[in-house]
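Q: I have 161 residues here and want to know how they pack in 3D. Can you give me a structure?
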Amino acid sequence: MAPVSFARTLASQRAVKATGKSVSQPSRKILAAGGILLGKGAHEGQIAIVRRPRYGREVSLPKDKIKKGETEASAALREVREETGFGVTIKRYAGSTHYLVGGLPKLVSYFLMVADGEEATSSRDEKEVEAVEWTTPKGAVAVLTHEEDRALIRAVFAVAR
């Protein structure tokens, strides 16, 4: 997120110099967290992706906004459990994506996670997620809706373009 903020700050400073007027910048940002869930057993070598009917059948990694009082890691654990139904354990930080939503910057922190078992242990949020599917990282790059998610998967798993 820093390069975007830095670039905007430089642009604002140039605009103030050129016009003498301040350029407004978004004062809020959306913070979210999610996971790249590694499968076990029959899903070994695969990751979970979710289909979201609410966003035009978007295909993405499980994620959502961080709630007040949550850390990035605790929000990621909650969201992956809610959206996939799997118990999960965090292995490590995987990276972040950033993009604009309604003119506001959104930063999503992702963690590499492993499923605690081969089967979901609870029901998923069916209002938010239509389906959970397992695919290889290369397969995920082919079907994920957003380039930010595809770039993250390519970086984490060294998938060629």
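Q: Anything worth noting?
A: The chain has one domain: 26-157. Residues 26-157 form a domain with the Nucleoside Triphosphate Pyrophosphohydrolase fold (CATH 3.90.79.10).
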